[in-house]
Structure formats: structure tokens, C-alpha cells
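Friendly challenge for the regulars: who can give me the C-alpha cells for this chain first? No prize, just bragging rights.
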Amino acid sequence: MTAPLPPLARPLVLGSTSRYRRELLSRLGLPFEVAAPQVDETPLPGEAPRALAQRLALAKAREVAARHPQAIVIGSDQVADLAGEPLGKPGTHERAVAQLRRMSGQTVVFQTALAVVCQAIGFEQSDLAAVEVRFRDLDDGEIERYLRAEQPYDCAGSAKSEGLGIALLEAIHSDDPTALVGLPLMRTCALLRLAGIDPLADPA
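First reply, four minutes later:
Bragging rights claimed.
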């Protein structure tokens, strides 16, 4: 039987295929691996956007942790919440147009959930960052030009705030600005410290 590793020696695994989450996590300067979670992301009947994001983040972290039991695994999920209705990744141009038409002039809450799991030490913690985004009144020409320019079809809500999508917005309200991009880094740091990984620890 393999002896348990001390927390600081544990590998860090991001349970996500999102390039945006990979880019965000790399900001912390920690070595990490990436594993694709095998999770059905279909919403449950009547499931609220916040509950959906929390359930999927934890399910992703648990599924990857089951395959990497010695690792500290990060799972995350984001759901756009329009008046209680979940809006996911559009996937196609036509669905992105429909999403942006509906969000025009509206306030959308992007629910970004986070979970950190390590089977070997029995660690499991989760958190959620809600970001309120006010969209401008958009005409069809603006929507079409934006989508053709940035093609954000893999983004919940059909807009990249870190890119040209910022031109679609009037205001953003959040206590963790990276959450809107897909991974709330302040909350990630807090949960990693609880699990035994401190991005600012002395390497010696």
C-alpha cells in the first residue's frame, strides 16, 4: 500500500477542458495537470442556475479525483442566470444570436462555482462567485459583428468579457473579477490553502 503524500507534495489537477480556466490557473505559478471530467452536464428538471453550477463543479472535481486519488483536484462550472433561467454555452452561431438578443438590456448573473477535492486526505470544499453583468441595448448588427469577430460559442452567455465582449456591457459587479472569465481565483487560492497548497509559500 502506498503511503499518503504530504499535502505540499500532492499533484494539482484541473478538472476542466476549458482553455480559459487553464489560462487563469496558470497565473498562480503552480505546476498542474489537466484532466477532462466525464460528467453529464444536463440540468435537472426545475434546477436553478446557481444549484446547477454548484452541482456540476462538485461532480467534475469528484469524478476526476476518483481517477487521481492522491491529487488535489479543482472543478468549476459556470451558468449564466437570466431571471432564473440557466443559459449555457451556445455551441452554434444561431443559438448565440438568440442568447444575446434575450440578454440585450438585461442584467444577467453569471454563477461560477468552484470545488476542490482530494480523496486521499478526505478533503472536499466548494464555493460560488456570482457576477452581475448589465448588457447594453444591442441591435442585430452589433450582435452579428461581435459574434463574427470573436466566435464565443464555447462561453456561457455568448460573450467574452476579457475580449471584445466588453463592448456589449454597461456594468459588471463582482468581488472576484476572474470569476466572470471562468475560475474565481481568489476563492481558488483560499480553498487551495485549506487543502495544503499555498501559491505564496516559500519553495524552500
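Helices lie at 19-26, 49-67, 93-103, 140-150, 185-195. The two ends are 29 Å apart (CA to CA). Your move, everyone else.
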